[in-house]
Amino acid sequence: MEIVETALNPVPGAPNALKLSYRARRDGFASAHWIICTFAAQTGIGRFELTAIDTDRGALSDIKLYILQRWGLDDHPPALARRPLLRLDARTAYWLQQTLNGIVMAGVYGLIATGFSLVYGLIGRINLAFGEIAVLAGTNMLVAVGVASQFGRLGPMALTLSLLTGAAAGALASWVIGRLVVLPVSQRATSPQAVLIATAAVAIVLAELLRITAPDRVNWLPALLNRPIYIAGTRGFIATATPAQLLAAALSLFGAAVLLGLIGLSRFGRAWRAHAQDPLMAAMLGVPVPALRSATFLVSGAASGLAGTIVVLAYGTISPGDGLAITLKALISAVIGGIGSVPGAFLGAALVAGVETVWSSAFDIAYRDVVTYSLLAGFLILRPGGLFNRAAPSPREF
Q1: What distance in Å separates the CA atoms of residue 186 and residue 167, rounded to the nearest whole number?
Q2: Residue burial 62-86, b: 16+ Cβ < 10 Å; e: rest
Q3: To the nearest whole number, what is the mean pLDDT of the chain?
Q4: Does this entry carry the keyword Ribonucleoprotein (predicted)?
């Protein structure tokens, strides 16, 4: 029998439950099923304690649930099957797990926040379509994976080409939006709100196009590199990570290093910093402004595209509804870090991801976004220049 996961969603009215939808195929016939797992708590270590199971064929009895907990969950997992690499107490291991999870989100927010900073640093405008560009890139990666899978088993080369396809799709989409929307609107309207409105419209168009093309299905990355690695802990709790999650975290750090090196050391970075500080003087000294703008749109789009592929790699899929949330969190990261600063974008992303991770792990996750947006309001009131204390109208230095 072949079992394929199709969706994982929260259960309305049951904050401690998750609904897993899957498709089972046997002898050429496929059927859809679902299972709802209820846990002891919404936060803390209790969120990993299974307390009830309901399925499309009925709920598990107490006896069956006990058998599953005693022999299906306790003896199989890490504690007896494999020893963790490090021995830590359960609480420390739990927070190590949350740190590992937060690294991926910090990378996603940071890469897209860099897109905001690069465009804003160059022309003083904000492109609200970067979140949907990331979703478009992730979707293209999934399409490329699907095409590659038709020619055999998906290997490292095919996965690498799929990642590059996603990043390239993000770069191309950003360049097109920049040339056809951002630059023309910013040149014809003195108010920055015009670009905000135009790019918000573009984001809606992209989201709807992606939603319409896949109305009744969710694309998932095949189960790749999903065998868990038991990192640290004891029998009470063991921090784990899959090779796919570690690869996603590594790509996040690699993308951050490349962007920081590009801005700080390359010819493009010197030209970008010169134009950000004094556009007229940069043009007089021979900086090719049209080429610089095109390169900026390509680089910012590639960063957002890489973020979209990282989401797919870490979580298995990405959907059109994810674009708005990613855009807002990345924009908050850019503002907190000091919009127009590339290092500030990553620093702000680390802070936002850290606050989200800590709150989700220790408190009611329903209030997570309230805390995040309150953090933005606090920075705008108390430190409007961001962590680097640089006001937006000032020259945007590296």
Answers
A1: 26
A2: eeebeeeeeeeeeeeebbeeeebee
A3: 84
A4: no
